[in-house]
Every structure is written in structure tokens, then in C-alpha cells.
């Protein structure tokens, strides 16, 4: 029975690692959407750096899903604002940073 638990944790950790990589790569798409807007690109690069160095953990699966959803929301907001740093874009960036901090607290 003990081996079954380890296998489940290992699978969750691997899935979490893949989610982290996907979130990090998704930021590249956002950088393209914000091309030419230095303030937005700087914020996105900062987030990407934080996402790149996250450690996989089976405890943070839900937070990583939350980050993924926020990145999707940011993509929509950047598209609507044509890459500009609008109030909504700024708000979502702050939410992503808070989710990353929340994730760090879990681990």
C-alpha cells in the first residue's frame, strides 16, 4: 500500500511540473501581445522568471490551476486593451503575483 501512495504523489508532482512549464510558456504569448509596451513586458518577464523557478509539488496543484486561469484572463484583458497597461491588466497581474506568493507559502 505504501508504494501506491508514493506513485500517486510522484504522478501529481510530474503533472504539477508540466503545469508550471505550461504557465511559464504561456507568458511568452502574453509578451507578444504586449509587444512595444515596455511596462507590461517588464511585469510579464518578472512573472515568467518567478514561474520558471517554482518547485513542483503535489500540494500546489490547485494554486497552479488558479495561476493558469489568471493567465488566461490576462490574455483576454491584454487583447481587449491592445497590450496597454489598463486597470484590469494591472489588477490581474497583481492577482497572479499574489497566487505565486500563496503557492510559495504552501510549500
How would you sum up this structure, described in words?
There is one protein chain. By secondary structure, the protein is mainly alpha-helical. It is built from 4 helices and no strands. α1 runs antiparallel to α2, α2 packs parallel to α4 and α3 packs antiparallel against α4.
SSE layout:
Layout: H1 2-33, H2 38-52, H3 61-80, H4 87-106
Helix pairs in contact: 1-2, 1-3, 2-4, 3-4
Name some characteristics of this structure:
single chain; 107 residues; mainly alpha; 0% strand; elongated
Quaternary organization: single chain
The largest sheet is:
none
Overall pLDDT: 90
The secondary-structure element order is: HHHH
Number of strands: 0
Q: Tell me the number of helical segments per DSSP (H or I, 4 or more residues long).
A: 4
Structural class from helices and strands?
mainly alpha
Helix content: over 70%
Radius of gyration: 15 Å
Distance N to C terminus? 25 Å
Give unreliable regions as ranges.
Answer: none
Overall 3D form:
elongated
Percent range for β-strand residues: under 5%
The gist of it:
The chain is mainly α and 107 residues long.
Amino acid at each position: 500500500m505504501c508504494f501506491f501512495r508514493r506513485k500517486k504523489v510522484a504522478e501529481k508532482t510530474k503533472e504539477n511540473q508540466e503545469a508550471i512549464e505550461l504557465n511559464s510558456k504561456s507568458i511568452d504569448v502574453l509578451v507578444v501581445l504586449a509587444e512595444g509596451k515596455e511596462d507590461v513586458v517588464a511585469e510579464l518577464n518578472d512573472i515568467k522568471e518567478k514561474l520558471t523557478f517554482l518547485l513542483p509539488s503535489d500540494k500546489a496543484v490547485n494554486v497552479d490551476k488558479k495561476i493558469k486561469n489568471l493567465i488566461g484572463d490576462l490574455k483576454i484583458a491584454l487583447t481587449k486593451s491592445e497590450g496597454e497597461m489598463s486597470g484590469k491588466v494591472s489588477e490581474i497581474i497583481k492577482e497572479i503575483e499574489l497566487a505565486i506568493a500563496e503557492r510559495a507559502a504552501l510549500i
